[in-house]
Specification:
Keywords: Carboxypeptidase, Endoplasmic reticulum, Glycoprotein, Golgi apparatus, Hydrolase, Lysosome, Metal-binding, Metalloprotease, Protease, Secreted, Signal, Zinc, Zymogen. The protein is of the alpha/beta class and 189 residues long. The chain has six helices and six strands.
Length: 189
């Protein structure tokens, strides 16, 4: 059984793609790194995917889906961060009411850093295939007020990234992915 965390490599035209979507790729990598460094071993596999060709029609995501869809019942949740890594506020979630209740309970663990909201509908080109087939999905929600200042511009460089905000994003990704991967049962469908 698999909990998938992901971001994609998006610097296809200008800039470095540090915010869009290097930040999403980084926090996904960091989540797994933190779990390993803490010596935690969840019941399910945590899988990191760094998608390619999202801007060219989601070619990498479609290929991955085609290669793995026969095992779709083993995918517990698919998570994608693709809206920058500014100050996070919570998760967008797609799934049934029972699964949403579980995710809301998990998000209460993040009360000490004041990131507890669960919004309707996860967004993510790379996880859409899975969600359409009934796999629960989550996307990071954060402060988008500056996102389009840098999106697909020469300004999308590492200087845009605030290490403290990225750490908060990584904390959300780490807690959610680990707890779901270590629960007794998969999320309800």
């Amino acid at each position: 059984q698999i909990v998938l965390v992901s971001g994609h490599l998006d610097s296809w035209d200008v800039g470095q793609g540090a915010m869009d979507d290097g930040g999403g790729a980084f926090i996904s990598w960091e989540a797994l790194s933190l779990i390993k460094d803490l010596g935690l071993r969840p019941k399910r596999t945590l899988r990191l995917v760094l998608w390619t060709a999202e801007e060219q029609g989601g070619i990498g995501a479609e290929q991955y889906y085609q290669l793995h869809k026969e095992n779709i019942s083993n995918f517990d949740i698919v998570m994608e961060s693709d809206e920058g890594t500014f100050k996070p506020s919570g998760l967008g979630f797609t799934g049934n009411a029972k699964a949403r209740d579980v995710v809301k309970e998990i998000m209460t663990l993040l009360l000490p850093i004041n990131i507890t909201d669960v919004y309707d509908n996860a967004d993510g080109t790379d996880i859409d295939y899975w969600m359409r087939d009934g796999v629960p999905g989550a996307s990071l929600r954060d402060d988008l007020s500056k996102y389009f200042w840098f999106h697909h511009s020469q300004g999308d460089t590492m200087t845009v990234q605030d290490p403290n905000q990225m750490n908060l994003c990584a904390a959300v990704w780490t807690v959610v992915s680990y707890v779901i991967a270590d629960m007794e049962e998969m999320l309800p469908r």
